[in-house]
Amino acid sequence: MTATATDRPGATFPRGVHPPEHKELSKDAAVEVLPAPARVTLPLIQHLGAPAKLTVQPKQDVALGDVIAEAGGFISAAVHATITGKTAKPTKVTLPNGRHVPAVPIAAGDAEPLDGEALRADVFGGDWPTDPAAYEPKQIAEAVSNAGIVGLGGAAFPTHVKLLQNDKKPIDTLLVNGCECEPYLTADYRLMVEHPEPIVTGALLAAHANGAERILVAIEDNKPEAIEAIRKAAGGTEIEVAVVRTKYPQGGEKQAILAITGREVPTGGLPLDVGVVVVNVGTAAAIARAVVRGKPLTHRIVTVTGAGIARPKNLLVPIGVPYAELIEFCGGLTADAVRVIAGGPMMGFAIGDLSAPVTKGTSGVTVLTADDVRRASETACVRCGRCVDVCPLNLVPTRIALAAKHQDWDLARKYHIQACMECGCCAYTCPASLPLVQLIRMGKAQLPKE
Question: Residue 218: how many CA atoms within 13 Å on its side-chain side?
Fold first, then answer.
């Protein structure tokens, strides 16, 4: 029998690293609601899969929650208006990952019907049922699809796909990921502490939809308040809280599955291959809101933090708001701020243009100072093997990176370039300061299709 959370105390995975956490900057900052912006810009590609298809015309009046673009295929996600106002002419925006994508701007109207604490109450407040039997499995998946929900942990995979039952690969375990191992970020932590009830409801609904018999909520042991909040909210349900050791990248779905269940997802495989589905805690809360209240994904919690930000905060923000407005609401940049990152320092992307919009997958904004980014000059690889020692997927990062640099695609495939999760453990530990993650990302983007 495979070991489980209850008989794997201090569960973890092989390799990985322990970067400074810096979560103290924002972990005690209760979620605040960002005032409704004057304008949002909504990219039509905020998810893995096909772009959404535009359904509105320029100068069309839209209300909060209206569909402005429908899913462009099975693996796709609808996009909804995140403020009430009037659409403008479609444009293109550059996302932090460098992609140039089509987008629809919306200019706010005279008044936003939901703002401030009323908005928070609409998103997270009220009663949340713990009996999923009131809903049919297909009804749950359909509601999630209509709501445009994607993975809010950063991967942005359309969630409804994970909720469909698969006769060929049945699911027995739903893993709700609350590890949030990326340094600095505390959005998921604050959600678990302040609003655990919709997480519990969403987990129960997701398991009912895909047929999982067991529900585990994974939380790192550096978050005792979150552990207690989820346990209390889940009281009387079949949900188990699995406490795992704090280590990066414990929040990676393959690492969490291995640590908690003892099952190893094969290289190039999916959690589905070992009978597991993984959803983020924020995604679970969004599932609950979509199914129970019929509301789409329009807002999410974003951490704005780092030594380069005046007042670190956790904010409930509308998708499509510019990064600049989040930074301004947090008091602006400090005098020694030199780098703004979408996400955290391990897996995030440096932002060159602060007018870029927040997307469904934006979990944080990290502002680093000159002291934070000071590093040794890049040298030649010294063949020390440290990158191999820490790679959580047991890959050979330098071989992959150098193959990508020299466009040796056969070698890149041989060393499983597509399996790399871009966690940054290799670059973090590299004594030669090689830009391993950037080279691998570049290689993936340029890799010819087979």
Answer: 35
| C-beta of residue 411 within 8 angstroms of C-beta of residue 403 | yes
Mean pLDDT calculated for residue range 190-219: 97
Between the CA of residue 448 and those of 100, 355, 402, 410, 440, what are the distances in Å?
20, 32, 16, 10, 14
Task: Give the three-class secondary structure for 348.
Answer: coil
pTM of the model: 0.93
CATH 3.40.50.11540 location in the chain: 5-29+117-293
Quickly name the fold that domain 5-29+117-293 has. Answer: Rossmann fold (3.40.50)
φ, ψ (nearest 5 deg) of residue 203: -65, -45
Residue 436 has pLDDT above 90, yes or no: yes
For residue 413, the SS3 value is: helix
The total of other beta-carbon atoms located within 10 Å of residue 430's CB is: 24
List the structure tokens of 334: 């400090």
- Three-state DSSP class for 437? helix
Instruction: Give me 83's structure tokens.
Output: 């403020």
CA-closest candidate to residue 349, choices 449, 275, 424: 424
Q: DSSP for 70-87? A: E-SSSS---EE-SSSEEE
- Exposed e or buried b for every residue in 169-183, given b needs 16+ CB within 10 A? eebebbbbbbbbbbb
Q: Output phi, psi for 93, to 5 deg.
A: -130, 155
User: What is residue 2's predicted lDDT score, i.e. its pLDDT?
Assistant: 38
CA-based nearest residue to 216, from 170, 163, 256, 169: 256
CA distance 209 to 407: 43
What digits encode the pLDDT tens for the residues 140-169? Answer: 999 999 999 999 987 889 999 999 998 888
The length of the chain, given as a count of residues = 450
Alpha-carbon gap, residue 252 to 259, rounded angstroms: 11
